[in-house]
Design a protein that fits this description.
Mean pLDDT: 89
Strand order of the largest sheet: 12-13-11-14-15-10-16
Low-confidence stretches: 554-560
Number of strands: 23
Helix content: 25-40%
Structural class: alpha/beta
CATH topology of the largest domain: Rossmann fold
CATH superfamily of the largest domain: P-loop containing nucleotide triphosphate hydrolases
Shape: globular
CATH architecture of the largest domain: 3-Layer(aba) Sandwich
Largest sheet: 7 strands, parallel
Length: about 550
């Protein structure tokens, strides 16, 4: 049997989806390559510097990766490919930052000429100074800027500059039959903490939605025993963190604070939103609350949903490199292309488990994914054809024929906990009125959001409509069906987060079902393919079904 991979000279890798060894090859590729396209029969990956550096951070070597590629490649691998991969792995850790004193770090390299070559870079020339012996030094305050620039030049830095200890915080994890840190959660926290007082303490943990990333953050906090600032996406997520800290640790209520638009509590553990940190009184004003990083004696900053880290917080993060930093995310995909900044400023990937691996172990619900293609009416199709490219997207997303499909799916899943998720508020409000369902949007007060989420968890409101505010950090463990009626263009991270809303394992061991509705033969269908890329990389396949047949009951075997 021929091996499953074709590796091209430009670093692209083709994987046959019908090959008997597809699953094993897909998991092997995911360690060091990124999925770019996923047509039905062949998936296209690309090997990049960042993907190789993250593999190196997890302990892989160039020799191991190249040996695996050769064993699984149908044809001989071009020399330029093996040379590039070997060079990218060689560069990981070639440069090191080591602490000299409170004010300075030394930039060290085993390549004697490299530092002098890099110093000719215009930006680095302003950040690196040399003494008479040719040793390179960096001011402590420039630590992040140097790391960012070196990653852009292709030289990731092994940061051994140490960290401020922060104020001590003595607490333990709660004990009891209803809570136990899972083995993989403990392993993720330990991987972040590895190396002791100076070496350990920066990096990203990548785990699927529903796998308990919050518990990983709490376990890391317990290992470090220091005041901690947790940053997350919205006030609902803040309060979820506060509840989890109260339930799963010995911290008292007076030791955990909420820092949001509604409360400004600075306590040993402070949980804040990204939004509050990026608040400013006017366009020309500075950011009002960025000084929060310097308050509270924080020795650790936890970045929840780190793939959403806003640009102003990126800039602040560049200046706080002396604090330990833990990023938590389901996917390192950033639609703004700033993966290199996450790598340089938060740290490399320290731990990751494939989604399907956790599904097989029973920690995630098995999921079936469907792309439901919905035809447009003749009048809407005419408007679509004559519209601008941007307006075409909205016309396709707002397709009123989707209402019929949603109605059919709600009836089919009337005994299930269903989330209807969408991008456009008018569309969601129409469905709310049509199906007499409550809706949560950005305009919904935090108190009302909390009430509706609690009612959903209790089963009093089994079907709920939510906008993109429900994409992140919402704990709805009993949700088992999601119907996506519109999304953010081709956002892979959003698709992953929305599937994640229904992946928590169910008490009865039942499966999760994810429908994404797209208008047939439109740009929305093209965007759907892009949105599905990350999930395809994780092993999720979308079954295609026709919306009209679904609504007419012809396809009742779907999701049965």
């Amino acid at each position: 049997m021929e091996p499953p991979l074709i590796i091209q000279a430009d670093g692209a890798v083709l994987l046959e989806t019908q090959h008997p060894e597809y699953e094993a090859a897909r998991e092997g590729l995911a360690r060091f390559a990124e999925l770019e396209k996923s047509p039905e029969y062949v998936h296209f990956y690309r090997i990049t510097p960042i993907s190789c550096w993250n593999a190196a951070a997890l302990g892989a070597s160039a020799g191991e990766v190249l040996a695996w590629m050769e064993a699984n490649s149908r044809f001989p691998i071009a020399n330029e490919v093996t040379e590039r991969i070997a060079e990218w792995f060689r560069r990981y850790g070639l440069l090191r930052l080591e602490r000299v004193d409170e004010e300075r770090l030394r930039l060290v390299s085993s390549d004697e000429g490299l530092l002098q070559d890099l110093a000719e870079n215009a930006k680095l020339e302003q950040l690196i100074t040399f003494d008479k012996r040719g040793r390179a030094f960096v001011a402590a305050g420039d630590r992040g800027d140097v790391k960012q620039e070196l990653v852009r030049l292709g030289y990731p830095v092994d940061d051994r500059g140490g960290y401020r200890p922060g104020a001590g915080l003595d607490f333990q994890l709660a004990t009891g039959s209803d809570f136990r840190v899972r083995d993989y959660q403990a392993a993720a926290a330990a991987a972040f903490h590895m190396g002791g007082a100076d070496a350990g303490g920066c990096g990203v943990v990548v785990l699927p939605c529903g796998a308990g990333k919050t518990v990983v953050g709490i376990a890391a906090m317990q290992l470090l025993q220091t005041n901690t600032l947790v940053l997350t996406t919205n006030t609902v997520a803040v309060r979820q963190w506060v509840r989890e800290l109260s339930a799963k640790t010995t911290l008292s209520p007076s030791e955990v604070g909420e820092y949001t638009g509604e409360n400004k509590q600075i306590r040993p553990v402070t949980v804040a939103t990204y939004q509050i940190l990026t608040h400013r009184k006017g366009k020309l004003s500075g950011f009002t609350h960025l000084d929060l990083f310097d308050k509270g004696g924080f020795g650790l900053v936890v970045y929840d949903e780190v793939h959403l880290l806003p640009a102003p917080v990126f800039r602040a993060t560049a200046g706080i490199q002396a604090r330990r930093r833990l990023g938590l995310t389901a996917t390192l995909v950033r639609e703004d292309g700033r993966q290199d900044e996450v790598f340089s400023l938060i740290g490399p990937k320290r731990y990751e488990l494939p989604w399907k691996h956790l599904e097989r172990q029973g920690f995630l619900a098995a999921a079936r994914c469907y792309e439901v293609r919905v035809a447009m009416s003749g009048e809407r199709a005419e408007r679509y054809q004559s519209a601008s490219a941007r307006n075409q997207i909205r016309i396709a997303a707002d397709n009123e024929q989707k209402h019929n499909v949603v109605g059919h799916l709600l009836r089919r899943h009337q005994a299930d906990r269903v989330l209807v998720i969408g991008q456009y508020l008018d569309q969601l409000q129409e469905m709310s009125a049509l199906f007499r369902l409550p809706v949560i949007t950005g305009k919904t007060s935090n108190e009302e959001r909390d009430r509706l989420y609690a009612a959903f968890r209790a089963g009093d409101v089994p079907h709920l409509i939510i906008s993109k505010v429900g994409n992140f950090a919402v704990d709805l463990p009993d949700a088992n069906v999601a119907i996506q009626v519109s999304g953010t263009f081709g956002s892979r991270q959003e698709e992953a987060q929305r599937l994640g809303r229904v992946l928590r394992p169910k008490p009865d061991g039942g499966p999760a079902t994810f429908y994404t509705l797209v208008s047939d033969s439109t740009r929305e269908q093209e965007f759907a393919r892009k949105r599905q890329l990350f999930l395809a990389e994780q092993g999720y396949a979308y079954e295609i079904c026709d919306g009209a047949q679904l609504s007419n009951g012809v396809s009742d075997e779907v999701a049965s």
